[in-house]
Amino acid sequence: MTTLTATTATTVTQLGGRIGAEIGGVRLGGDLAPEAVAEIRTALLAHKVVFFRGQDHLDEAGHEAFAQLLGTPVAHPTVPSADGRYALGIDSHHGARANQWHTDVTFVPAYPAFSILRAVTIPPYGGNTLWANTATAYTHLPEPLRALADGLRAVHSNEYDYAALKPDALPEALAQYREVFTSTKFLTEHPVVRVHPETGERTLLLGNFVQRINGLTGRDSRTLLDLFQAHIESPENTVRWQWRAGDVAIWDNRATQHYGVDDSDDHERTLRRVTVDGDVPVGPDGLPSRLISPEAVPAPSFGIPSGASNGSADAEAEADAASAASAAPASA
Ligand SMILES: [Fe+2]
């Protein structure tokens, strides 16, 4: 375990060999000093997920105000917020839980750069969350698999078989969740390897919103997805956090996947998530992700559409120009 003392009273304690650090000596909020924000951002980019204990003072407004120090908050494209603004409710009473490895909102091109999750009510046991480092998952691949991944693109969607994921959920709850979650059906093509816009690292961009890998049969697609996911989910490549009420976790959503363990039976588990707007991914060949459908990412009920703070419209125009130039089949 490494302990680094930063320039302020902030401490950064590494938790795992490849991912995770706990940050101490910080009271999160909209009034945090710029040096502390810079230290958090540096630790976040290095360790991919950072944890803070004892942030019980935060409410929805403080949570959002802190998020604004990392970028532009963005609401979920389809699920209404818990506060009418940006705070998404992660609630154990929903029909579907996050017990699948995923990166948040990858069914749109410019999915969030950061997610900030605050624990409100924590069950007496279980309900931990795991994160995996998708940059080290890539660098630890043998060279032939890295070369293979570099050339692949995959289609992500918010429409999948909820009943297959959660066979013991109440059918009515599942149907209701699905109706809201997929009120707009998105299809987005991403490179399987993303070049990180801030660190330059290559990361594997997969997770449970992936439907298939372009140009492959369903069976080959599933085989390759399982192969790459196994490297992402390997225990050495992950960190696990046992929540207490008042904890905050922030992850670099461009370099991680996460998994909410569904093992606290019927106990209440309530968290709030605010996401920070991201930009359109670019593969090793320089080709950006592209939205297949609908024609544009609609604005949520509050705030900007995903990617609007980072000029995603320009990147999509470039993607269209690039596919036209390479005489690729016309997109829908
Ligand atoms: Fe998530």
TrEMBL record:
Residue ranges, compositional bias (Low complexity): 278-288, 306-332
Record-linked InterPro entries: AtsK-like, TauD-like_sf, TauD/TfdA-like
The EC number(s) this enzyme carries: 1.14.11.77
Naturally occurring in which organism (per UniProt): Streptomyces lavendulae subsp. lavendulae
Record's protein name: Alpha-ketoglutarate-dependent sulfate ester dioxygenase
Family according to the record: Belongs to the TfdA dioxygenase family.
Ranges where the record places region Disordered: 278-332
Keywords: Dioxygenase, Iron, Metal-binding, Oxidoreductase
